[in-house]
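Q: Give me the 3D complex with zinc ion.
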Amino acid sequence: MIWIQAFIFIILPMILLLHLLKNVYPGRKLLIADWLGTGMFIAFLFFIGPWHIFIYYLRYVWVVLFIVTTFFVIKKVSRLPVKGPKNKSYKFSMGIAIFLTIYFGFVAVTGITGYFFTDKEKAIKLEFPMKDGVFSTGHGGADPSINYHNEYPPQQYAYDILQINGFGMRAAGLTPDDLEKYKIYGTPLYSPCSGEVLAAVDQYDDIPPSLSSDSKPEDPAGNHIILACKGAEVHIAHMKPGTVEVEKGDEMNTGDILGEVGNTGNTTEPHLHIHAEKDGVGVPITFNDRFLKRNSLVFN
Ligand SMILES: [Zn+2]
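A: Here is the predicted complex, encoded as structure tokens.
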């Protein structure tokens, strides 16, 4: 699965861009349709792709290469006949290009709608809970296409956060089996707000990455902490065994140590899951006034 994804994110854009440059087009319309289709595909990758798995910064490389390619396409298009051939294969190629433009354009725009949220007055302002690193948002935003938590009301607007290394990858490898190879594993967590500890659980072992869901522990949050802050319950999940440093009833100040990031509960790899609920419904969180979306980076 991960190799198919790698093909889609790394190899396919290269093939599409080379095709635009090298293909001998019989008419202008098909070149323009292919250019649009490639552009929408790259927009889809840019907004929807989980770039922390690959080299994060490639996300921008495709955009730059698309802009460069566009200059060559503009030159090329003026040399082509305005009317293309009337044969079936030309029409078929046009049909595919138009379909891809509409499909990937639609998915990209759906992702962009998740950059904004409507419950402005319900949002709570928190301090980012990790330091000394570069962090990437895996799931975040207001639309399910960029944040799967939105399918589940108590966890809507939840964030899954990863840490990336100097190469822009969240692990040494694509999906290593060793938890230690994930940059965020063991990263200290600090209280994102001041408030009382409502629950603190530290009784589960880490699970190996990519374990199938039927063999996961009973509590999907694994080792976790719930804080009462600013009229909301702030949930911090999947903590590393033996690291939870607080107990129910403790009063926390912003920046106090809570524990470390682990891989306990219903999780596919080490990450920080954080969400805030008011009356059982998830509310948006801003960190230092930023609403994070998939691929948002935090330098802290
Ligand atoms: Zn999550």
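A quick observation: The mean pLDDT is 94.
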